[in-house]
Specification:
eight-stranded mixed β-sheet, Aminopeptidase, 16 strands, elongated, Alpha-Beta Plaits, alpha/beta, 399 residues, 10 helices
């Protein structure tokens, strides 16, 4: 790629930084939950209209796909993706752009992703006479909730007309300082399934347990048994996580309830083991409840697949990131048991999902995602915009 084009990306990114920060702050102050991103979608549409970028809206109701056509637009297409939705978390940050929607917060950085992609669009739109091919901009709803907005966008044709040859996505990473990015080739993020169990027994007085079939005790045994099942059956070389985060009994100190509800998550990196584990866990839970005189209903909602970064595409992206940011600012990532519906795009075409450092330890900006105090060093937006624009241009030029 010509050095002058790289310099142009850097210059435009710097010039537009204040505007991108303002966009991020607007989005952060006005978060919306999954599949309810109506105002967010309208805001993105207005931004694209102001840039003169053609787009189609209405994918999964709130999704948007825009197109930036360079010279010879049919030669090659590269897609860039951002997610729109926020989380049901009450923000505790005392900042001017604090969430105005009580109990809803951009605690996973999707405001950063969307603002970065809009900033990237500004850069590429200004440079469209200097590159060949087309850049597809995907603004996707519902990343935080099954079945995942990515899967629904694909079903509704977001990857058609034109069909991209590659797709890139970035995600905030508070474990990295601002200015740095991270890559991992091959398997990167886990599959994610939701588990819903209802243990049925017979309630009664806590002082008369012999007259009850205690679902609290049954639920306790089921949790322990399932943890042992996973630890004794999973191949130690295949990372696997089973966690229960919600137990509802609705009894009291002296009341044993009729039923107990459990909710949890199961994550791994092997599809065969994933299916085997589902069947084994269901059988174990049902048998455990039956052996104690009760019963249970065991439901698994199959979630996102594990995410695979295409090796050649990721290697090129990492090399271009080193060229753009400096090798000292590009790190290698380990496996993560978190999940991402970007994995659905990676099943359709070569993909690269990388991490954007957003921390600033000196300023105390280190809180993890999905917490009420998550925030970013907004200097990271300059890295996010510049690198994504450069990766798109580099991939369009790659033969």
């Amino acid at each position: 790629m010509p050095q002058n084009l790289k310099d142009a990306v850097r210059q435009l990114t710097a010039e537009q930084h204040a505007e991108v920060v303002a966009i991020r702050r607007h989005l952060h102050a006005n978060p919306e939950l999954s599949y309810q991103e109506h105002q967010t979608s309208a805001y993105v549409a207005r931004q694209l209209e102001q840039m003169g970028i053609p787009f189609r809206k209405g994918y999964v109701k709130t999704g948007i796909v825009g197109l930036i056509e360079g010279c010879n637009p049919k030669s090659k297409t590269v897609a860039l993706r951002a997610d729109l939705d926020a989380l049901p978390i009450r923000e505790e940050n005392e900042v001017p752009y604090r969430s105005r929607n009580e109990g809803v917060m951009h605690a996973c950085g999707h405001d950063v992703h969307t603002a970065s992609l809009l900033g990237t669009a500004m850069v590429l739109n200004r440079l469209k006479k200097q590159f060949s091919g087309t850049v597809k901009l995907i603004f996707q709803p519902g990343e935080e909730r099954l079945p995942g907005g990515a899967s629904l966008m694909i079903k509704e044709g977001a990857l058609q007309n034109p069909t991209p040859e590659r797709i890139f996505g970035q995600h905030v990473f508070p474990e990295l300082e601002t200015g740095k990015v991270g890559f991992r080739s091959g398997i990167y993020m886990a599959s994610c399934d939701e588990i819903y169990v209802t243990v049925h027994g017979k309630g009664g007085h806590g002082a008369l347990p012999h007259k009850t079939i205690d679902p609290v005790l049954m639920a306790s045994h089921i949790i322990v048994a399932l943890q042992q099942l996973v630890s004794r059956n999973a191949n130690p070389e295949t990372p696997t996580v089973l966690s229960f985060g919600r137990i509802v009994g609705n009894g009291s100190t002296n009341v044993i309830p009729n039923e107990v509800k459990l909710e949890g998550t199961f994550r791994t990196f092997d599809e065969t083991w994933r299916s085997e584990a589902h069947a084994k866990m269901k059988a174990m839970a049902e048998q455990m409840a039956e052996s104690m005189g009760g019963s249970c209903t065991f439901r698994i909602e199959r979630g996102y697949p594990f995410l695979i970064n295409h090796p050649a595409t990721t290697a090129r992206a990492k090399a271009q990131a080193q060229a753009f940011l400096g090798a000292e600012n590009v790190v290698d990532l380990g496996l993560r048991m978190t999940a991402e519906d970007f994995a659905y795009y990676a099943q359709q075409m070569p993909a690269c999902f990388y991490r954007l450092g957003v921390a600033n330890k000196a300023r105390g900006i280190t809180h993890p995602v999905h917490t009420s105090e998550f925030d970013i060093d907004e200097k990271a937006l300059e890295t996010g915009v510049g690198l994504m624009a450069w990766l798109a241009l580099s991939e369009l030029e790659n033969k």
